[in-house]
Structures are given as structure tokens and as C-alpha cells.
Specification:
about 270 residues; alpha/beta
Length: about 270
């Protein structure tokens, strides 16, 4: 107990650091992500380690945080969406190298979070392979038509969607018509190969903390799903240099909207 108290004091006695760490932990950021954020982004704060943050949680100063995280971080069983053999599929092996290398906005990975046996509804999840910007849509009556409507809403909210890589789900039987309707390209993983879309698998693992396996998804409000979408888009992510998906997405938009050097030169010559 003395060791834990001593480690906890390193954070507890620094007001600004403690506030930042507590806010991050209560927002379900990992200690490693908080350590990286402080090191690479919040450089005005005193440095601390993931080890010290975990000690802080276990110390007398972190009882409230520990109780919160015990409720959220529980082991969940993996769900298995329905599979189907579909004609005319574009297999992931045909996906261009640019998409495989995570270049360019709008190349998404997609999946479904399903209800338990006695529940109704699904959640369609998408995440951008480059900036990890994620979109969630609740679909209470499950049907091919409602999945298409949800994808159309996502395209309106995130118009940069160019391609989506999915599993072989029965709800995507009309994928060819969907491609034409939304002006996107759909790729499919090989059967029983979820590792081919690691970003969405990681996202779904996080979402299952808040929507446990066996849940009745129809009981979750649209407001709850929207708040959950906001939460995952403000996570500190090591693969993004401990920035959040929202921050990286905004940075990419600014970079794309910035006039190129060549264009500036031409404008200067004409003047």
C-alpha cells in the first residue's frame, strides 16, 4: 500500500497533471495513450509513465477511477456475423496498393455489431484506414434496405468515402447496386479472415465495452450511439502520434485545402 501511495502522489500532487490524467481515464483512454499524449502533444505537462498512471489508479487517490474502469473494461466474447457466398465479389486481394498502404482519405473498413438472441437491431460501424475517423449507425429493423439507407446517411456525413472493405455478410448481397448508388467501391475479405480488416476489428473490440455481447441494440438510443461515436473519435492513438482521429482528420483537410507551392509560383509570376 505504501508503494502504491507513493507512486500515486507523483500525479496526485501535480494539479494540472492530475486533472489531465483523471479526465483521460474517465474518458476511457488507456494509460499508455495518456503517457504518449503527454510526451508528444501536451508537452507543457510534467512527464509521467503508464506505470505511474496505473499506480495512481490503484492508489487511494484513484478509487473513483478504478470503480469506473472496472465497470467498463470487462472481457467480452466475440460475436460472429452471418456469412454468405455472393456472386461478383471484389476480393480484397484486388484492392490497390494505395489503399493497402493507408494512403488517401475515405478508404474505410466496415462491420456489424449484432444484438443477442433475444434482441433486435444492429450497429453498422465504419472506420477510415488512414485517419481512423469512425462512423456509427444504429439499424433497429434489420434489412438490406435499412443497411443501404444507413450507408447513404454515413456518406452524407462523411462524403470522402471512396471504398469500404467488409466481411462476407448476408446484408451485402446487393453490393453491386449499392456501389452504383453511392459511387463507392466495395471489397470483401477472404472467408474467415477478419484479420484482413484490423482497424474495424479493433474499433469493435472497444465498442463492446459499452455494448456488451448479448445486448438488445434496439434499446440503445441514437443519442447514445452518437455520443459513443464522439468518444471513439477523441481517443489518443499511438498509430496517430497520440493525436485523436478528429484532430488528424482536420489536419488532413487543412493540408488538402492548402494551395500547392507550384500553384503559388504560377500566381506570383502572373502578378
Amino acid at each position: 500500500m505504501r508503494a502504491k501511495r507513493k507512486e500515486g502522489k507523483k500525479i496526485a500532487l501535480d494539479g494540472a497533471l492530475r486533472t489531465f490524467v483523471e479526465d483521460g481515464l474517465m474518458d476511457d483512454q488507456s494509460p499508455e495513450a495518456i503517457e504518449g499524449r503527454i510526451k508528444h502533444v501536451e508537452t507543457n505537462l510534467e512527464r509521467t509513465s503508464a506505470f505511474a498512471i496505473r499506480r495512481f489508479i490503484k492508489s487511494p487517490y484513484g478509487r473513483r477511477i478504478e470503480a469506473h474502469r472496472l465497470k467498463v473494461f470487462k472481457k467480452k466474447c466475440r460475436s460472429h456475423p452471418l456469412k454468405a457466398t455472393m456472386d461478383g465479389k471484389r476480393i480484397i486481394s484486388k484492392r490497390p496498393k494505395r489503399i493497402n498502404d493507408r494512403k488517401g482519405l475515405g478508404h474505410m473498413e466496415g462491420d456489424f455489431i449484432v444484438s443477442g438472441k433475444s434482441g433486435k437491431g444492429i450497429i453498422l460501424t465504419l472506420t477510415d484506414r488512414k485517419v481512423r475517423k469512425s462512423l456509427l449507425e444504429r439499424i433497429p429493423p434489420v434489412s438490406v434496405a435499412n443497411v443501404e439507407r444507413a450507408l447513404a446517411r454515413m456518406k452524407r456525413r462523411y462524403p470522402r468515402i471512396q471504398s469500404i472493405t467488409f466481411d462476407n455478410d448476408l446484408l451485402l448481397l446487393e453490393h453491386k447496386r449499392l456501389e452504383k448508388k453511392l459511387s463507392i467501391t466495395i471489397y470483401f475479405c477472404h472467408p474467415r479472415s477478419p484479420w484482413e480488416k484490423p482497424s474495424i476489428e479493433h474499433l469493435n473490440k472497444i465498442l463492446r465495452r459499452y455494448i456488451p455481447k448479448g445486448s438488445d441494440i434496439s434499446r440503445y438510443s441514437r443519442r447514445f450511439i452518437r455520443k459513443l461515436e464522439e468518444k471513439v473519435n477523441r481517443r489518443f492513438m499511438e498509430c496517430l502520434g497520440f493525436l485523436t482521429p478528429d484532430e488528424v482528420y482536420r489536419r488532413e483537410l487543412k493540408r488538402k485545402n492548402r494551395p500547392s507551392g507550384r500553384r503559388k509560383k504560377k500566381e506570383g509570376r502572373s502578378n
